[in-house]
Amino acid sequence: MTAGLRATAWSLLPLAAYLTGALQTLWNVGAAVVGFVTGLVLSPAVWAGVVLAGLSALLFVVSGTLRGRALSRTRTARPEPGGGAAAPERSAAARTAAPQAATPKAATTKTAQTGKTAPRQVEQPAGDDFSDIEAILKRRGID
After folding, report:
1. Among 131, 106, 132, which residue's Cα sits nearest to residue 118?
2. Quick one: which of 21, 28, 33, 79 is 20 to 30 A from 63 by CA?
3. Segment 50-68, tens digit of pLDDT
4. Structure pTM?
């Protein structure tokens, strides 16, 4: 008896799908999926787009790798051959000597009392858009 009821339930589903319009909707969805897949597989324009997207992704990866290598090369090439500890002391001494020579006597005594140097004014070209950023980096010792 249970098998008969189950078979009747299965046989009523297609009729219910037809009467509710679900059968037509399922047919349209299936036709759209098949049309999309055949258009994707058989269209040379679509394959050209896929190739261009892959090429674009490859170029992004390669440029990121090359940029990382260039940045690491500049970081390792920055220290002077005289040693890492001596170079900052020399540059700090050079930085303190230049502003003290150019500043008035009152500013020099203030600098001597606090032990800190006044920020150095850096001459930048008028057309340089990154002049403010470069000045901040130079003040912090980043060249």
Report:
1. 106
2. 79
3. 999 999 999 999 999 888 8
4. 0.31
Q: Which amino acid is at 3?
A: A
Q: For the chain, state the CA radius of gyration.
A: 37
Q: Which amino acid is at 93?
A: A
Alpha helices in the chain (DSSP H): 2-20, 22-42, 44-77, 86-102, 105-114, 131-139
Query: Could you tell me the sign of the dihedral formed by the alpha carbons of 91, 93, 97, 103, in that order?
Result: positive
Q: For residue 24, what are its two tokens? A: 């037509």
Give CA–CA dist 50/56, Å, rounded: 10
Rounded Cα distance between 139 and 143, Å, is 9
How does pLDDT run across 92-131, given as a tens digit for each residue? 545 555 454 444 555 555 555 666 666 666 555 555 678 8
